[in-house]
Write a structure and sequence with these properties.
With about 190 residues, the protein is an alpha+beta fold. Helix content is about 45%, strand content about 15%. The protein has 8 helices and 7 strands. It has helices at about 5-25, 35-40, 60-70, 105-110, 125-135, 145-155, 160-165, 170-180; strands at about 30-35, 50-55, 75, 80-85, 90-95, 110-115, 120-125. The strands form 2 sheets. Strands 1-2-5-4-3 form a 5-stranded mixed sheet. A two-stranded antiparallel ribbon has the order 6-7. A hairpin with a 6-residue loop joins strand 3 and strand 4 (about 80-85). The longest helix has 24 residues, at about 5-25. It starts with a helix and ends in a 9-residue tail after the last helix. InterPro entries: NT_sf. It comes from Actinomadura parmotrematis.
Amino acid sequence: MQDATGAENAEGLRLTLKRTGSVLRESGVPFALAGGCAAYARGAAMSTHDVDVVVREEDVEAAVGALVAAGMRPHEAPENWLAKVYDGDQLIDLIFAPSGRPVDAALLGRAEELNVAAVLMPVLPADDIITMRLLAFTETACDFGAVLHVCRALREQVDWPGVAARTAESPYAYAFLTLLARLGVIEGEFL
């Protein structure tokens, strides 16, 4: 059960999600909803952390500019694969190179237009959402619990052999897929 603060944060994030999608769509910047909010759009629990969108690197400046023109504020990001913008207290990550892989037209082209919190916006397919999450695992960032609920919620939408092939170089992804198989979340001899 969510407490009042958690419910307020979820509602604030939902409003930021709507604003972000509307502003970016109106600006003409190609984007797609990613991360926890994309998983939410596809049936997982609502993320309460931030709004993640993917954009091509060459569109980051235009995306930040559009969000700032709508009253949001930029924030200096120490990472070299995303830009950050705040809508009040809510964080928006504009990701252009998730796990070192550049966002391109092919990735954005796979996004599906979905109604998310009453706003139509492009949302990454479940395969890409899960692949990005698995490739983000590292020795110092390997919280399987944070991804397990998303995989349970999206399991029927995911091409698991395809995800296994695209994440084959990652021992952390392999370990997580093995865990999913052992828990009975996924099936297959592809691991």
